[in-house]
Amino acid sequence: MSKSATVTAKPDTLGKSLLPSIATGQAAGLIMAVVAMLVFAVFLGKSPLYPVQVIGATVFGEGALQGFQLNALLAGLLLHQLGPALGWSLVFWLAASSLSIDSVQDSLILGLVIGIVSMVGPYLLVPAALKSLQGVDYWNREVPLFWDWAAHIVFGVSFGLYPLIKGRLAR
Fold first, then answer.
1. What is the reported pTM?
2. 3, part of any domain
């Protein structure tokens, strides 16, 4: 991080970085979803919508994985964007505010750390939630670990867009 980084942020700095952090997290979540869709279509021989439907299986169970299921697709997209993408964008906001992150390089580094740490979801949170709600961890059953890591790294690196998004929103 930059040498001029501070440990605490002023309240006005926190407010100015919240919306750009959320917007960046939403963009990063969508970029991650598109990458996962491409991986499923190109490398895994499944429908490109399948990974989003796997998320939707949290609500709709095994039936969400049978052919195209619009309800599972919409639920999966909402769960992904309003759950982890939003949650990790708030973590980014807190860290970026405290560290005075404004450069692409610093945003990439912080984002990469967040991408790696966000794997707590597939390792701990998702299995617990799915087993509790559906009795089966569909995510870890259906998504190869290598590709899960790759998607989370893409998610994290996408936070490199933060300075650009922050600049556009400041206009």
1. 0.90
2. no
Phi, psi for residue 136 in degrees, rounded to 5: -140, 135
Alpha helices (H) along 45-85:
50-60, 70-80
With respect to residue 50, please indicate whether it lies within any of the assigned structural domains.
yes
| CB neighbourhood size of 83 (10 A) | 17
Has residue 5 been placed in a domain?
A: no
Q: How many CB atoms lie within 10 A of CB 65?
A: 18
Q: Which helix (H) or strand (E) holds 30?
A: helix 11-42
Domain that holds residue 81: 20-170
Cα distances (Å, whole numbers) of residue 5 to 83, 104, 142, 148, 165: 29, 14, 41, 32, 20
Assigned domain for 121 exists: yes
Residue 76 CB partners (closer than 8 Å, separation 6+): 51, 52, 53, 54, 55, 56, 57, 58, 64
pLDDT in tens, 67-121: 999 999 999 999 999 999 999 999 999 999 999 999 999 999 999 999 999 999 9
User: How many distinct structural domains can be found in the chain?
Assistant: 1
pLDDT tens digit string along 21-65? 999 999 999 999 999 999 999 999 999 999 999 999 999 999 999
C-beta separation of 57 from 134 below 8 A: yes
